[in-house]
Write a structure and sequence with these properties.
The chain is mostly helical. It has a single domain (35-149), classed as Four Helix Bundle (Hemerythrin (Met), subunit A) (Up-down Bundle), CATH 1.20.120. The chain is 61% helix and 5% strand. It contains 5 helices and 2 strands. A hairpin with a 2-residue loop joins strand 1 and strand 2. Helix 3 (72-91) runs antiparallel to helix 4 and helix 4 (101-122) packs antiparallel against helix 5 (126-147). It is globular, with a radius of gyration of 20 Å. The model has no long low-confidence stretch (mean pLDDT 89). Bound molecules: heme C (HEC). Residues 36-37, 40-41, 44-45, 48, 103, 106-107, 110, 136, 139-140, 143-144, 147-148, 151 line the site of heme C (HEC).
Length: 157
C-alpha cells in the first residue's frame, strides 16, 4: 500500500469546523446516480477494459504486444484496477433487478473474481491474473444471460 502523508491536517480540521457553522448546502448534481444502462456502458465496461488490458496479447504487423505488468508501479496499477471493479459491484446492489435474488448472487460472483484479480496482482502472479480476468468476463456474461440476454447474442455472420 502506498502511504500518503497529510501535511497541515490541523489547518484542514480548523477549516471544516468553521464550515460547519453555516448550514451545509448540497452542490448541484450531488445526487446523480446513473441509470443501470449508463453505469454499465460508461463505468463498469470501462473499468473492466482497464483490468483486461494487463493480460491482453496482440500480434500485428509491428510484432507482438503483451500488456503484462513489468514494473512495481504497473503491478500496483493492475491491483488498483481490480479493486476498482470490486468496489463497483457494491454500487449496483440496489437496482431495478434487486428484488430478484439472482442479482446479488451474480454481483457476488463478479466481486469474487475481481478480488481474485487483485490478489493475483498483489502477488505478481500473471497466470492467476489471466485466470481471474477470464472469470471476470464469465461473470459479466453470466449475469447478462440472466437479465439482458440480447447483449450476449452473437451477430449473424
Ligand atoms: C449483476 C448483473 C450484471 C453484471 C455482473 C454485469 N452486468 Fe453489464 N449489464 C447488466 C444489465 C441488466 C444490463 C442491461 C441494462 C439496461 O439495458 O437497462 C447490462 C448492460 C451492460 C452493457 C451495455 C450497456 C449499454 O449501453 O447498452 C455493457 C457494455 C455491460 N453491461 C458490461 C458489463 C461488463 C464488462 C461486466 C463485467 C465486468 C458487466 N457488465 C457485469 C447486468 C450486469
Amino acid at each position: 500500500m502506498k502511504r500518503v502523508f497529510v501535511i497541515g491536517a490541523a489547518a484542514a480540521a480548523a477549516f471544516s469546523v468553521s464550515m460547519a457553522v453555516s448550514a451545509p448546502q448540497k452542490p448541484a448534481g450531488a445526487d446523480t446516480q446513473l441509470p443501470l444502462k449508463e453505469f454499465m456502458g460508461h463505468v463498469m465496461d470501462r473499468n473492466a477494459a482497464q483490468l483486461w488490458r494487463w493480460t491482453a496479447y496482440e500480434i500485428d504487423e509491428k510484432g507482438e504486444h503483451s500488456g503484462k505488468p513489468t514494473t512495481e508501479l504497473e503491478w500496483e496499477e493492475a491491483e488498483s484496477d481490480a479493486l476498482t471493479l470490486q468496489q463497483l459491484t457494491l454500487l449496483v446492489e440496489n437496482s431495478v433487478f434487486s428484488s430478484d435474488e439472482r442479482w446479488a448472487v451474480h454481483l457476488a460472483g463478479l466481486r469474487a473474481a475481481a478480488t481474485a484479480s487483485a490478489d493475483a496482482a498483489e502477488r505478481k502472479d500473471y497466470e492467476a491474473l489471466e485466470k481471474a480476468g477470464n472469470d471476470v468476463n464469465d461473470q459479466c456474461v453470466s449475469c447478462h444471460l440472466t437479465f439482458a440476454p440480447d447483449l450476449e447474442r452473437q451477430p449473424d455472420p
